Amino acid sequence: MNLIFLLTKRQKSQSITMNITNDQFNFPQSFHDLLISIDVIDALIDKTKHRSFPEMFIRQSIILLGKNLQFTRDDIEKSNNYFDTIADLQLINFMNNHLLLKISFIQFINDLPIGSIPNPTYYKTYPSLCHIPAIYIQIRAKLFYQFNIFIEKLVSVIDLSLLPGQSIVTDQIQKIKSYILYEIKSKLFYTTLTLTELETHHDMPTVNFNTVKASSGIDTMFNQAYDQLYNNAHITFRKEYNQLWHAQYLGMHSTDQGGPFRDSVTRICSDICSTRLSLFILCPNGRTNSGLNNDRWIPNVFPSNKSIPNRIKQQYQFIGQLMGMAIRKKHYLSLKFPNLLWKQLVRERITIEDIEDIDIQSFTMINEIEKMIKQNNQLIDIDKVLRTTFDELRFEVISSNGKTYELVPNGRNIPITTSNFQDYCSSYRQYRLNEFYRQIECIRQGLYSVVPGYFLGLFTANELEEAVCGKGEIDIELLKRNTEYGGRYNQNSPSIQQFWKILKEMFNEEQKKLFLKFVWGRCTLPSCDDDFGSKFRIEPYHISKGSVDGALPRSHTCTFGLNLPNYSSIDIMYDRLNYAITYCSSIDTDRQMNEPPTPTDLESDGTTDES
């Protein structure tokens, strides 16, 4: 493929020089499209703006987009002058958000503002687009859409599974995967999910959970799930049913029609990002309460000269398999991993900036020494400074878990001098960049055993994280669009209006997640409307005795439902909802365990119903 690619590029270059068109060469159309796409990629990533978009690409706009949407070279070149990488990615994000609403591209373009002046009101949440004339945003959107038509055709003739450096063509595609619309890559990927789904020929496995042992720290929910599911997870998690196991809580009497299953997944995830397991640790920024991402959990660190124990490697693989389950079943996981983990899973290169994002002090010392040496190379005795100021510095590194490891054999006895300082810096940086490689590779192996990795490589790190964890914030408008009402309630009922005002304006993000767990047994929403397997349903709660204002709402996690009393004010509704989501998330219908405290002024138990 690469040889053909290089020969074709050479012949193309010669044909331009000799004023000969590519049509004179007997190459398949797919190779002509490949050449055009590579030239478009080169133009897109050229920060100097010197590379032109290929003429054949521009000519095909009338064929691929139609007469009303075609563009000219003059259009493209004028638009190109207004866009840099940040503006490009904001436009791609804008297009993704609108095209996922299932509108046609023609409608999308026709809905865009036009004119020779910017429209900051329309693009208010996309700052880089606010200062670009509206007409050039429209032209750039057409270019991106046509480019994606080319890419969709090309993926069948290139090998996306190759590692960086193994294929010029694949490397070029990887460079611009942020420019590939989510609609395109998700269609390709989810088609392969369907093709690799397994029919269910056996009974669904039952997983027994001992919550007493879990809460006391004797045996976590994660370990109990791992012990019972890992051996067959690569098969079980590819089954066609949305619920993959029956969760049986020992000593409790809930019937698993979906709620206990979802609750068990939530509890498993809460173990993963915690000190209850040794698989992950809070990142250095979190431990020192400094820098960014101080709520992120990183893989625990193991000596680079020793093997990771097999059970630990398999548990990392099991986490990857749970990720695959989340992608397949849209049952999102509440995992707080840093961007570097998701990048390695889609084979993106981890950078020094990624490390600094979780450890702001990671390279401070060697950067300062390098800076000092560069600025004072002729003025000071560097060896003397290293001996006095950095006397204890050796060929060692303090890892992300706070432990010290040797960078080379016997490194603890090798002092840093002018002659070996650059080797030390190189070894230090390589260690920090690869500190989590083996652990994340185990996770990747588990993930790829449940979902095919071929088209997953087209996803960006952020897109993979969203596919596994859902959107970071609870989208109340998305939930509202997927809600139905029963009894005397409808969307205009005063109680319903008050309910949505509370969720949207009065609850913080943590309360929204608690609410979702209360009514559905999970902490995240699907990413889009199509991913809702069932609608959220709100019905009145008829109180047989006592006052309505003294009653708590009742949830049905199996059916994704809520019985909402008709409270006399929004403040009372807020108080009752907040109390229920905070204290009444027990899944045991007879309340023998996890019984919520009952305040004296509330007259209903507000339990979560699983039967």
**Structural class, judged by helices and strands?**
alpha/beta
What is the alpha-carbon Rg in Å? 28 Å
The strands making up the biggest β-sheet line up spatially as 7-8-10-9-11
By DSSP (H or I, 4+ residues per run), the number of helices equals 27
Structural commentary:
Among the domains are: 2-180, no CATH class; 476-609, Hect, E3 ligase catalytic domain (Hect, E3 ligase catalytic fold), CATH 3.30.2410.10. The protein is built from 27 helices and eleven strands. It has helices at residues 2-17, 29-45, 55-59, 61-64, 73-80, 85-99, 105-111, 134-154, 168-175, 182-195, 211-216, 221-229, 233-236, 259-272, 284-288, 310-329, 339-345, 352-358, 364-375, 382-388, 421-434, 437-448, 461-469, 476-481, 494-506, 509-520, 570-583, and strands at residues 206-209, 246-249, 280-282, 297-299, 396-398, 404-406, 483-485, 536-540, 554-556, 561-564, 608-609. It has a five-stranded mixed beta sheet. A two-stranded parallel ribbon has the order 1-2. It is globular. 33% of the residues are buried.
